[in-house]
């Protein structure tokens, strides 16, 4: 018998300790809570989020910026303390920050 099937068989034959009453709503709520917690943990391990926290910024603040196009790109990169090759080339070509090409 493969490992997973054996574990399933053993788990299926076990009796709960005490009364264990869970409604479908309880189970769905628990799943949502665990999923959100896992997403937060994964988010904190991302390099970009760590970089924002180092600079005193919060995740999602960039969405509140009213600038659009190239200007928004440059502002976000400035906040992160990095600049992409494409943005640098665009600026060095003399196109400035207002053009979207």
Class by SSE composition: mainly alpha
List how many beta strands DSSP finds. Answer: 0
Percentage of residues in strands = under 5%
The Cα radius of gyration reads 25 Å
Listing every helix as H and every strand as E from the N terminus to the C terminus, the arrangement reads HHHHH
Please provide a written account of the structure:
This protein starts with a helix and ends in a 9-residue tail after the last helix. It is mainly α. The relative contact order is 0.07. The radius of gyration is 25 Å and the shape is elongated. The chain folds into 2 domains: 21-59, no CATH class; 63-101, no CATH class. The model has no long low-confidence stretch (mean pLDDT 76). The chain is 58% helix and 0% strand. It has 5 helices and no strands.
Element layout with pairings:
Blueprint: H1 3-12, H2 24-44, H3 47-54, H4 69-80, H5 85-92
What is this entry, summarized?
This protein has 101 residues and is mostly helical.
Q: What are its keywords?
A:
0% strand; 101 residues; mainly alpha
